[in-house]
Hints:
The chain is α+β, with helices and mostly antiparallel strands. It contains 8 helices and 13 strands. The chain folds into 2 domains: 2-144, no CATH class; 152-253, no CATH class. It has helices spanning 11-22, 35-38, 62-68, 82-85, 89-97, 118-132, 142-151, 192-201, and strands spanning 2-6, 30-31, 42-48, 54-61, 76-77, 103-110, 156-162, 167-175, 182-188, 209-217, 220-229, 241-242, 252-253. A hairpin with a 5-residue loop joins strand 3 (42-48) and strand 4. The longest helix is centred in the middle third of the chain and has 15 residues, at 118-132.
Amino acid sequence: IARDCQYVTSRPILEKYLKEQYDDGDEKLEIVKDLDKVGNHCLSWILYTYKNQKIRCKMYNKFVQMMESAETRMSLGSRMEDLVMAQDKKLHKRLRKAKKCGLSRLEITFYGKKLRKFAYYEEVVNDTMDVLQDCPTYRVPFEEYWRYMASTITSMVGVHIVAENTTAFAYCHWWNSITKKKYGSYRNKVGKDEAMKALANYSFNDRPIYLLEVEMENGIIKNIINTKYKRPIGCTEITLVSGGHDDGKIYTDP
Length: 254
């Protein structure tokens, strides 16, 4: 079960708040130690309901999650296209509504084989929301997050792989040093000309972008050519943002 809420917080702030709420009470709180998997904008914790059912609560910054990963188990990707062309129309509407203040998502997973009445699940969700009601939150527009994260980019990299029967292109804007996830996109069957066009569109002004051209044979790397590119001073071209790639296309959002 998921609930979206306007405004955002951080993992350290939320963890401190939850410990203050539960440490002196009868309910036992267990913070999931997964910082290296989810980063500083997500926190999960384990509790038991009044029916002694185990639940896992997860709160995260939706915008940051969209920028950093396409899916939980993927190390390269993003969901930035959800801001402009989300398949989930309700999510798209909530994102647009929250663009000036930020968006957090609360997810609650119920463990056990028994299926209970809907009123029970609704009550647990509402109780959790009540506990979180006074947690310190902040108004951070999506634009500010993007500008901050873009300011941390010192260089970008694209990889063009040529093998016997196929080609592939992967691109990375930045690498999260905590989760090891990379923001970017990839696709198969990309020729050199198309790879160069994507590389130019994804470049930031005044920062270098590297192209690694990888030649493979029988699954073994035979040669790598590393070339550095940089937009000229005074360039007025916009930077495109790589989006999803589920259908084999590289979506780009200005």
